[in-house]
User: Fold these one by one.
Assistant:
Number 1:
Amino acid sequence: MSLPPAVDYSARRLGFALLVAATVLGGTALMAATLAGNGFDVWDAAITACFALTLPWTAVGFWNAVIGLALMRLPTAPAETCEQAGPTATIRSRTAILSCIRNEDTETVARNLDCMIAGLAATPESRRFEVWVLSDSTWPECIDAEEAFSARLQARWGDRLAVRYRRRSDNAGYKAGNIRDFVTRHGNGFDFALVLDADSLMAAQTIRRLVRAMESNPRLGILQTLVVGLPSLSAFARPFQFGMRLAMRSYTLGSAWWQGDCGPYWGHNALIRVAPFREHCELPLLPGRPPLGGHVLSHDQVEAVLMRRAGFEVRVLPFESGSFEENPPTLLEFIRRDLRWCQGNLQYLKLLGLPGLRTLSRVQLGLAILMFLSSPAWVSLMVLGVLRLGLARDTGEVLDPALGSILFALIMTMVFAPKLAALADLLLSAAQRRAFGGATRVLAGVVTEVVFFTLLAPVMAIAHTVFMAGLPFGRAVVWGPQRRFGHRVSARDALRRLWPQTLLGLAAFLWLAASVGSAAAWLSPFFVGSLLAVPLAVLSASPALGLALAQVGLWRIPEETEPTELIRSLGAPALAAARQAHRVAGTDLEGSAPAGELAD
């Protein structure tokens, strides 16, 4: 099969860079003008500098959404594709499906693998696939359970698709080391490897689509799917499942348009070409001691830029195509996962100078660093703003209210552009409106999700800032298993983890109320979220609230309205709640499996 000529992305990337740069410079200039009514002093310079550091990610997200909306709505807009093979092309390669686990809940892992194997076993190419359970577990009860479910899966499916279990005796290199060990020892037997996390779930047709795309394009080194959240009964996870499903496509389409063959890799639900991955993507051992030295934590983006350095394409398939993960069920679990990413992304500071990297690859590593450095910039911006307002005799000494209002409106528009773009596309389609539960539920979901994430943003920014402040003193994340099931969070546990947010929010409100009164409204959204961190953590972990939200259909996703066969086979609790809601409305979800029932 002849390949289409490679696309020259240089003009797109230059245009995108100019748009982002103009947005950052324009926003910074507007902030400076807002503060310069009575002269521009050291206070104003510090506030403006902090503000400028927060803008790159916001600007990138805004323009990704604008471009993505154009690609979704304009029939003449160019669309990127990495697929040359048709949906019925015969698969001739061999693919290892790698389930990477460490001290995980084995019931979830076994359930998801069973569903994926069932789909592949029903195809004529099932013998082209093998499942490898790659364990780094250290807890005896987990090891015993892993060996048992692997044996059960092999006994059930082994005549159509082999299931193998391999456990390392240590966790050297973490997940990336686990995969490196596999491709070194066993990679010669496979053309491709599908990398999964413990909570990953992928439809058989999606897996086969990835393999066909990789077979038909020998330039492809990594092909990433667009991952969306599974239905959940967690009150904390539900806005994430809704937001991911609603907004990720416009964002990802926009980024794929200019990143093209230098796209992202998120470390799971992605297909890799084994030979170049083994040869070119071994991670360096970073100089210095942990937390910023030693093994790379956020391995995925580093492996992507190394694959691109070797001349192979890294692309994303920007469609909701049967690729799922589970979102953290509580705020405390979400913070724990995010801090691991934070530490890993900051390690990229030592990788920016790797020889031979493409310019865009260095930009991507830099943006990944800025994603977390923007958090202390935001916190510093808010703290400086509070102090400046409190020390001023009048608000007019600090800022121009008219320009400040314009700046606030522009920033909010950019922050929520991906969501607004997706909402516009969704509301124009009757089928999509029905899939999300109707226009009323969609609008209610968007409004309440905005409120939720407005409260969450300062909680996360302060968590990142406190964590980064401890890195020079050796503070690091503990590489442990995630709690993937919903569970209650006590006020005591929440306060123990979130006291910095609570203290900062309380101090800011007392300072502003005592000094400037109504001027606190300019900064109150940030400090309201900080002050309410503990109640937010406790309430969003409530099982009763999660069930109630699922029953009324708030933050509903298409997998709850019209579950596919794959989702039905999971028997997800959220589907049980959705069925109850439909019965109240006088309808039912035809064919849904009872909660807890596995496909047979």
Number 2:
Amino acid sequence: MLSSKLTDRPWKKMLWIAVIAALSYLPHTLQLTYFRDDWYYAYDALVGPAGVFRYMFAGDRPARGPLFELYQALFGMAPTPYHLAMLLWRIAGGMAVVWLFHLLWGRRSAAGFAAGALFGLYPGFTWWVQGIEYQPMVASATLMVISLGLTIKALRLQRSWLQVTCVAGAVVSGWLYLGLVEYAAGMEAFRLCLIFLVVSGPELRSFGSRARVALRTWLVYLIIPVGFVLWRFVFFASERKATDLGAQLGGFLADPLLTGLRWIMNLIVSLINVTLAAWVQPLSNNFFSGTLREQAFGLGLAFAAGVLGWLLLRQDAASSVRKKTTTADNWQMHAIWLGLAGLLLGIVPVVVANRQIALPSFSHYALPASLGLVFAVVGIVSLISDQHVQRAVFGGLIFLSALTHQGLGASAVREERTIAAFWHQMVWRASSISPGTTLLVYYPDVDYGSDSDVVWGPANFVYYLQAQEQLPVRVQISALTPDRGTLDAILAGKDVQESTYRAHSMIIDYGNVLIAVQSAADACVRVLDPRWPTYSLADDLALRSLATSSRLDTVEVSGSGAVPPASLFGTEPEHNWCFYFQKAASASQYGKWHEVAAIQDEIGRLGLHPNDQIEWMPFLQAQAYLGDLEAVKEIATRINTEKVYRQQACSNLTAMAGHGYPLPPESQAYVNELFCGGTQ
């Protein structure tokens, strides 16, 4: 049992929320670098001139520009401070909920602690691993709770300068949270619900009289949504349809029935995702895909967080018994109804914008509504009469939330390390990549969907991090996503497009595509050579039709090599098989077959070998060209273990003559016998 002195004040419970959040987030927070869209934020800021963030958000959410400029002034673009700031915002949000609960139901400190912990650990928000881009969302969620709390605090005070200060603070923080996240606007109606709950007096026994007083009180705070709407939708012209109220409502006016039905369906889906799916989908999608070591580590920390939450609630229950507090009021039902109202009001603006809260892509839309969710959950669980069961449920929810974030963090760190390892190999392979190149990259076990910045971001950090004076910033190496649309576009012919997004632009040249693939984390990166491409059994089948489109001439192997920044990519890996494979592939690009053979001698002395036998291909080509039949036979015993690899050896060795590297007659005959069935 924890000492009662550690939990007898609301501010002490707030500190325990920080401990639980640290157990849930901190281990992976300290390991994360740039994740997904963080790459373009960081690249634009580091390469572009001053004012890049104001330029980035000038067309849709101008309030975010100064926020990011403040961060940049404080931290530069080093990733760790942003991730720590993300953690601090989540902790501050949980603390603010404890305070809000204390203002509403002062004696229900255990419920307030549970609500604060669950808000700070809400498992439906999966993008906390993206430390830069989602700063405005977590800041907005915390400022939202602070603004609501200041409103209730002002109502609890007598007329004084302190009350005026609280009202002013509520208005300013209200403008700030809406300026950062406009789809949180529904929570201004939730403010009215809170005011309705708090106003009291002997003359306010009827619903109507109470509603009238609540509305009169709320009029003071109406300046928040009215002021925001006037600024956001009257004086400011949005360039993005997704944040343009007129464009969104235009669809409803054009077809009210169809749009209304779509809104209803989106509302249902969003409600399911914010509530039920949030506790299941992120956990099942991330935690169980990790290694046993990661799972054991995460399980231990999540269990510690859940047990700590259970102990704190148990201590609070013991203190309540000693103080003889009662549960005569109907606060649980108030919390439930408030929570349901907050859920709906938090979701409706998203739905009206013709979006839905989908996991994980749009999990950030759930943050405003998550306040309503924790109110409802705490109210429902608190109705359980058995205190032991009640505490077990709260502890279990904290455990599941922490376990979800352990899985999310481990998955993100694993992806970042996979990408870092890929680019270390690319640097071994290519000292430079020509500007104007369009990359098509297949990372191992990384489904990056439409987030092509996880390709061009690292590429430009490695090869083109020189400062520029113009806006938008010109990205020197662009990238495509590995999907059917990309395949069709490349095969269709040489099409050139300029793509501009926020503060950067790039040229996407479908006729100047360089294709690189890594089939598994323990395999080597292969830059496809259209003269004699190599495919692994684990490769996407679409690669076979794209191989001749890979522009190997964009790869330069001479000169001083690029050095990936250690703060993002870690230190250079040891020189294992893949290091020598990349050097052999570089030499084979220019037909330096003696160098390739010398590299094979070196790996033989070191006792190195590949995990994918297709990686013997450049060595096989070198030995066949040089006429070393014993070496060809030795490599054949490895490559011929797979029929597909044997067929590739036949076609690649045969193709060498057409590109200026004919095999000696005896080598050609031997190759025909070993790989081509003696028919060539």
